[in-house]
Design a protein that fits this description.
Strand content: 5-15%
Shape: globular
Number of strands: 17
Helix content: 25-40%
Order of helices and strands: HEHHEEHEHHEEHHHHEHEEEEEEEEHEE
């Protein structure tokens, strides 16, 4: 009897200690402007990130990684010694021949650094001294869904927190009136679908997920008061709801109740802050014009780039832009030309705009997709037309600002543009570097999930790419 009583009392005591720890941890994480690692593990180089995600897999061979040999050997079968038995997708794996296809677009060197850039990107060509081009990115996923999920959450299987959720959880928020993590999607673009789980919180509390802003009268869905409900009555309702949650919290000790109250309060503040930040009418004309002809179109990539800068100015920590349409299995020359026309000038203008405002130094800007494209043509190859299949073994990205060394090219692919031959950067290395620039040691930044210490970079080796750091 004594033993049973002692175990029951000890169990309750241990449970109380665990609950107290969880409540204290949640209270710390819930405090405005703080996160679970209290400002980071080391001095950050970047305070915020603007990630220009090009969904669908842009071809590196038409943008950042010129391969003259492919033009010289146009139409010849891809040598087995180059492919090395690597898997292909079902879309081109059954082709009798994999004919190599050189880009029809010309490349030239630009800037003091002499980086080679495609003629499709004349505006970004003028920014090469500000950016670090990574030509040796590689991933394990060969299809869109696992590949984009891997880039956005660190795992090919859905259900993990996104990059922005991890950063919000770890570092907290710099803004009282706006979310720490905001998502913008180019309006009217087709292509591979985007899912809200790509900016979700996964196993972290829901308040860390990204908030999507849309163009139009209602930038955030369900944020506006319904007809007949004034802001004053909304305030009174929230006060009474807060009282009820407080009473329920004392009874149950459920930390999620405090999270709900914080989300309600943030939504209330956003009713005033979101219309102001989403209104681009107060932007000077010369600034809007610098982003290109699409900047005046709500929801365009150009307009979203301006909005991203406005959000960054107001303390939003992670801003994710998605631009679909890069999945060019056929008619690639015309398709990629259109994509570059939509994105080249806005991306370059964003860098210039941040620089002029003194913000590029502590804003990390990233451009890239989930994988690259094959060096051979999917389907019929002609002198002016071809397509390219998915290719995870090498692709290109660029990074700028926020502690990144500008005017460099990191990594190298083989002369066929099929394999990385030096300084490879895996997706996990990319995540580790991103976290490092934000002041976080990726190996020490974890969250409990199913009894394990989960982290963005997973359990496989990952390294910070020191070579691209300023």
């Amino acid at each position: 009897m004594f033993r049973r009583r002692w175990l029951w009392q000890s169990g309750m005591g241990f449970g109380s200690l665990a609950l107290m720890h969880l409540l204290q941890r949640n209270a710390v994480a819930s405090a405005e402007g703080s996160g679970v690692i209290h400002g980071g593990h080391h001095a950050p180089k970047a305070k915020r990130i603007i990630y220009l995600f090009q969904a669908g897999g842009p071809s590196q061979l038409e943008t950042w990684d010129d391969k003259p040999l492919l033009r010289e050997r146009q139409g010849e079968p891809l040598p087995d010694s180059v492919r090395q038995g690597q898997r292909l997708t079902g879309m081109s794996g059954n082709q009798a021949v994999l004919p190599m296809a050189g880009s029809i677009y010309k490349f030239a060197t630009h800037g003091q650094c002499g980086t080679s850039v495609s003629e499709l990107m004349p505006h970004m060509a003028k920014q090469v001294d500000r950016i670090a081009v990574i030509r040796s990115m590689h991933t394990e996923a060969i299809n869109h869904d696992p590949a984009i999920t891997f880039l956005q959450t660190g795992n090919q299987i859905s259900g993990r927190p996104s990059i922005g959720a991890w950063l919000h959880y770890g570092l907290g928020s710099d803004s009282e009136d706006l979310p720490a993590f905001v998502v913008l999607i180019t309006k009217g673009k087709g292509g591979q679908p985007l899912y809200s789980r790509l900016w979700g919180a996964g196993f972290l509390p829901a308040r860390y997920q990204g908030v999507q802003l849309r163009s139009g009268k209602e930038p955030v869905l369900y944020l506006s008061n319904p007809p007949g409900v004034s802001r004053e009555s909304r305030r009174r309702m929230l006060d009474r709801l807060n009282d009820l949650h407080h009473l329920e919290g004392e009874r149950l000790g459920d930390p999620e109740l405090a999270d709900r109250v914080q989300q309600y309060e943030m939504a209330y503040r956003m009713q005033a802050s979101i219309p102001e930040v989403a209104n681009l009418m107060d932007e000077p004309k010369h600034v809007v014009d610098s982003y290109g002809p699409d900047a005046a179109k709500p929801g365009s990539f150009a307009a979203n780039c301006i909005l991203a800068r406005r959000l960054a100015e107001r303390g939003v920590r992670f801003i994710q832009l998605y631009h679909q349409g890069w999945d060019q299995h056929g008619s690639l020359p015309s398709g990629i030309k259109r994509q570059c026309e939509e994105t080249d000038q806005p991306a370059a203008a964003l860098l210039q705009d941040l620089e002029q405002r003194g913000m590029l130094e502590d804003t990390l800007v990233i451009w890239g997709g989930e994988f690259g494209r094959t060096n051979y043509s999917q389907g019929t190859l002609t002198s002016k037309n071809y397509g390219r299949d998915h290719h995870p073994r090498c692709f290109s990205m660029w990074m700028a600002g926020g502690g990144v060394r500008g005017g460099i090219v990191h990594g190298e692919t083989c002369e066929f543009g099929y394999n990385v031959v030096s300084d490879g950067v895996h997706v996990r290395d990319f995540h580790a570097t991103l976290m490092h620039l934000m002041g976080i040691d990726h190996e020490r930044f974890t969250a409990k999930f199913q009894g394990l210490d989960a982290r963005l970079t997973g359990v496989e080796p990952a390294r910070v790419v020191q070579e691209i750091l300023a």
